[in-house]
Design brief:
2 helices
Length: 141
């Protein structure tokens, strides 16, 4: 049996999506997402915030650039991906990111009225960074 790599997050954007275009015009958007949880510690309510690095590819990146902004509440589904790179001193570093497969903007109606949108944006992709997802419709049975 193969493993499952599935991430579901609901949080606020830490900054506007940063979009860049790679060779061949492939769009990539990235931004930090904050998720918070509260718990009681010694009778006091404590809030703990985690920061997640989100990456969106191709059409999903274009939709994110158009609709997502710092502070907006968003639901994201995706998968974890760890990659390595070399820093300026040539030292190998590792980073873990959430590669988003779809997202839904959340919040109150008034959150979208300022942007001219009157309903949440829902964006999905079937092609994430070069790997094709198989839909149930493609199964031979």
């Amino acid at each position: 049996m193969s493993g499952i790599n599935k991430v579901i997050l609901v949080g606020h954007l830490g900054k506007d999506p940063e979009v860049r275009h790679l060779e061949g015009g492939v769009a990539v958007a990235s931004f930090p997402l904050a998720t918070s949880e509260t718990f009681n510690k010694d009778g006091r309510k404590v809030e703990q915030t985690e920061w997640h690095n989100i990456v969106m590819w191709r059409g999903l990146a274009d939709v994110a650039a158009k609709f997502l902004q710092k502070g907006k509440l968003v639901y994201i589904e995706g998968k974890l991906r760890t990659r390595s790179f070399e820093d300026k001193e040539g030292i190998k570093k590792y980073t873990t990111e959430v590669v988003a497969e779809n997202f839904t903007m959340l919040g109150r109606k008034t959150d979208f009225e300022n942007d001219g949108n009157h309903r949440p944006a829902i964006a999905k992709t079937t092609d994430t960074d070069g790997y094709r997802n198989n839909d149930a419709d493609d199964l031979p049975f």
